[in-house]
Design goal:
The complex is a heterodimer of chains A (244) and B (423). Chain A is built from 9 helices and 10 strands. With 244 residues, chain A is α/β, with parallel strands linked by helices. In chain A, the strands form 2 sheets. Chain A has a 6-stranded mixed β-sheet with strand order 6-7-8-3-9-10, sandwiched between helices. A 4-stranded antiparallel β-sheet of chain A has the order 2-1-4-5, covered by helices on one side. Chain B folds into 2 domains: 100 residues, no CATH class; 225 residues, MetI-like fold. Chain B has 17 helices and 1 strand. The longest helix of chain B is centred in the last third of the chain and has 29 residues. Classes of the chains: A alpha/beta (244), B mainly alpha (423).
Chain lengths: 244, 423
């Protein structure tokens, strides 16, 4: 067993007086795919936003790829550069073309030459099958296409870890599949992934482990098969009975 | 043929209604037109009161007759839909048309028919209209201020060069395109400063020195506006960022600065800059009046620009910040490439607003003794040889300002279109 690439120990987070995360412990090994599920407001989005410090945690430690997340901005930027993130609302940059969306960070953060960055970006866009939309602007694309572009944009930074924050929740049903397909391909290519989602089909297909969260705590963490076949906690059972 | 019902025009007898309606409408227009342009009252046989209201009544009836829904005639439908939907709107339409017809003759006769432009003394103006001779004789002063006549070629050359250099951006090759922003934001102002410093101000390179007190007129309007626009924008941008900063010191300094400058009138700021400010400087330290004025106006307008830009920053969804951060961008990269381009695009109308106000505020520099175009006008109108032509002067200034401001306004609209990407 190699060292875990993400190690979270006794992490606590408050929004004002409200405690969103309570004593979260989690370690993720390289190339593992973790699906996080749970009712809304259970802190799952906050958990993965803490991993690249879009949210600050107040107590406990988070170590990503050997670096502890602290106030040190240089460290944080370095970690963010190797942790890709895909958001529920896509968050593409509307003033830039699809291609520019994908090359912006490689050029200015990784200092990649423009030509190389563009070739690389085209490869990633090909992977998610929107290479023919490269010159368009985000506003001209469908939701599914935008989300696939967002995945490509994150992949252009050649991240070691990919975080997905409910990537299909803002999509029309017929577009969910195209995004999930892109994610499945990515999983098969061996990416380390943490996915917050309600798509249990996706979880069954690719996840190594499933985490169930409720009220800021990790209630159950189990191998995928075990999780669906034989959930231990009552709340997990209730949750699964409601969404399956 | 069905019986005509004049209270309810319908489609079946459309020709009859249309022709009778249009006839009445045009008779009404003709009545007003003749009365206004030729002082002929074709309805003078009627009592005064009726004669006065007749065009309106005829017009209302005429418009009523042609108010036929879905007539099938495209122009008629368009007309009915836009200016003739009901009797009230018909009355408004008629009143506007009548007002226009009535007001054109006096304007024409004042500005053209009865106006004079020949000669070069006040006595040449014999007509009852405008005396454009006054503008003609004083034109040099209005444009160059007190700048010596024989040296005015220096201003001309500077401005021609600057205008030519401003158009460089329209012929970019792909290679130099990325340097355009740098050119406009940094290099161009430096060139402008060098030209103004060496050519217009002079004092070296064998050119005679002309003190800034002698500068004036339209050229001074341009110089002050140009530098104030260029300085206030970046300062305003940093203030806006500062006000949203997470560092308390920076934030409070920005808030304090903005609220201070927004709280004082420009005229006092100008007064302070020229009277109070030098008192705090060491004795041998000299800063030109014009420079002080430009700095004062820039800081003043920067506070406004800052608030406009802050509005744009706040309009951006948090997701944009998240996305930029998640890609590893630091504060400056995030703002330069992601946040500011979007925020500035959103606030183009607000910025244009502030800039227009700035240009129109420049006449206030008269309080420190600098006379741009309106200042020169005020000077000229009190000249004993040319008393009594304030009207011509102000109309002239109004036209000049309108041209400048309209051009800026159109330019800002073009910018909006240019940077529009479908959301």
């Amino acid at each position: 067993m190699s060292d875990p690439i993400i190690k979270i120990e006794n992490m606590n987070k408050w929004f004002g007086d409200f405690q969103v995360l309570k004593d979260v412990n989690l370690s993720v090994e390289k190339n593992k795919k973790i699906v996080v599920c749970g009712p809304s407001g259970s802190g799952k989005s906050t958990l993965i936003r803490c991993i690249n410090r879009l949210e600050e945690h107040q107590k406990g430690t988070i170590i990503v790829d050997g670096t502890e997340l602290t106030e040190n901005t240089k460290n944080i930027e370095a970690i963010r550069a190797e942790v890709g993130m895909v958001f529920q609302q896509f968050n593409l940059f509307p003033h830039l073309s699809i291609l520019d969306n994908c090359t912006l960070a490689p050029i200015w953060v990784k200092k990649m030459p423009k030509k190389e960055a563009e070739e690389h970006a085209m490869k990633q866009l090909e992977q998610v099958q929107i290479v023919d939309q490269a010159q368009k602007f985000p506003g001209q694309l469908s939701g599914g296409q935008q989300q696939r572009c967002a995945i490509a944009r994150a992949l252009c930074m050649e991240p070691k870890i990919m975080l997905f924050d409910e990537p299909t929740s803002a999509l029309d049903p017929e577009m969910i599949k195209e995004v999930l397909d892109a994610m499945v391909n990515l999983a098969k290519a061996g990416m380390t992934m943490i996915v917050v989602t309600h798509e249990m089909g996706f979880a069954k297909e690719v996840a190594d482990e499933v985490i169930f969260m409720d009220e800021g705590m990790i209630v159950e963490k189990a191998d995928t098969k075990e999780f669906f076949a034989n959930p231990k906690n009552d709340r997990t059972k209730l949750f699964l009975s409601q969404i399956l | 043929m069905k019986k005509l019902n004049f209270l309810k025009p319908d489609k079946e007898n459309i020709t009859t209604y249309l022709y009778s309606g249009l006839l009445l409408f045009f008779v009404a227009l003709l009545d007003v037109f003749l009365g206004s342009f030729f002082k002929i009252n074709i309805t003078s046989f009627l009592p005064n009161f009726v004669s006065f209201l007749l065009p309106l009544i005829l017009g209302i009836i005429g418009l009523h007759l042609i108010r036929i829904e879905f007539s099938g005639i495209k122009n008629l439908d368009l007309l009915n839909k836009n200016i003739n939907t009901n009797t009230f709107n018909a009355v408004l339409t008629l009143l506007i048309i009548f007002t226009l017809i009535k007001s054109i003759p006096p304007i024409l006769s004042w500005s053209i028919v009865d106006a004079n432009i020949a000669g070069d003394t006040k006595e040449a103006c014999t007509g009852s209209g405008a005396c454009w001779t006054y503008i003609k004789i004083w034109l040099r002063r209005f444009i160059y201020g007190m700048y010596p006549n024989e040296l005015q070629w220096r201003i001309n050359i500077s401005f021609v060069l600057l205008i030519a250099l401003a158009f460089v951006g329209y012929f970019p090759s792909e290679k130099v395109k990325k340097f355009l922003t740098l050119y406009y934001v940094v290099i161009y102002p430096i060139i402008a400063f060098i030209l103004i410093y060496y050519l217009i101000s002079g004092g070296s390179l064998g050119l005679e020195w002309v003190e800034t007190g002698a500068w004036g007129g339209l050229s001074l309007t341009f110089i002050v506006s140009f530098f104030c626009l260029i300085f206030c924008f970046p300062v305003g941008m940093f203030l806006a960022l500062g006000r949203r900063s997470e560092l308390p010191t920076l934030r409070y300094i920005s808030v304090g600065f903005i609220e201070f400058w927004r709280g004082v009138p420009l005229i006092t700021v100008l007064f302070m800059s020229s009277v109070m400010f030098p008192m705090f400087l060491p004795e041998d330290f000299f800063m030109d009046k014009l420079v002080r004025v430009i700095i004062a106006i820039s800081l003043f307008e920067a506070a406004y620009v800052a608030e406009v830009i802050r509005g744009g920053l706040q309009a951006l969804p948090r997701g944009q910040y998240d996305a930029a951060k998640s890609l590893g961008m630091g504060y400056w990269k995030m703002h330069i490439f992601v946040i500011l381009p979007q925020a500035l695009k959103l606030v183009i109308p607000g910025i244009a607003n502030t800039f227009l106000a700035l240009v129109k505020d420049t006449p206030l520099i008269f309080v420190v003794g600098l006379l741009e175009i309106v200042g020169m006008l005020n000077l000229a109108k009190t000249n004993p040889k040319w008393l009594g032509f304030a009207m011509e002067g102000y109309v002239f200034a109004a036209i000049i300002f309108w041209i400048i401001c309209y051009a800026m306004s159109r330019y800002s609209q073009n910018l909006e279109l240019k940077y529009k990407t479908e959301r």
